[in-house]
Amino acid sequence: MFLSISRFAVANDLDGAVRDAFIARPHLVDTAPGFIRMEVANPCADEKEFWLLTWWRDAASFDAWHHSHSYRESHRGIPKGLKLAKGRTEMLRLDVVAA
C-alpha cells in the first residue's frame, strides 16, 4: 500500500472556504484505479493547516491520478483568491509497512 500526505497552510482568511470545498468535493478520485481512501484533517493547534491523506494500492496508481485530467478537474473547487503560507506546503510519499 502507498500513502500520499499533502500538507499546506492557508495564508489568508479562506480556511473555512477550504474546509467547505473539501466537504463538498466532487469525489472524482473515488473511482481512480488503485484508490483506497482519502481523509482531510486539521491539526488541533492550527485550523489554517490542512493534511490531505490518500491511500493507494501502489505509487503508480497515485502517479497516474496525479497526472490525469480528473485530478485537474477535482481542483476546480479551490476557493478563488486562496493563498498558501510560504514554507508550509509539503508532499510526503510513503510506502505503508503495516496496517
From TrEMBL:
It comes from the Bacteria. The keyword Oxidoreductase applies. Keywords: Monooxygenase, Oxidoreductase. It holds the Pfam family ABM. One of its GO terms (molecular function) is monooxygenase activity. InterPro entries: ABM_dom, Dimeric_a/b-barrel, Heme-degrading_MO. SUPFAM superfamilies: Dimeric alpha+beta barrel. Residues 2-91 form the ABM domain. The keyword Transcription regulation does not apply. This is Heme-degrading monooxygenase HmoA.
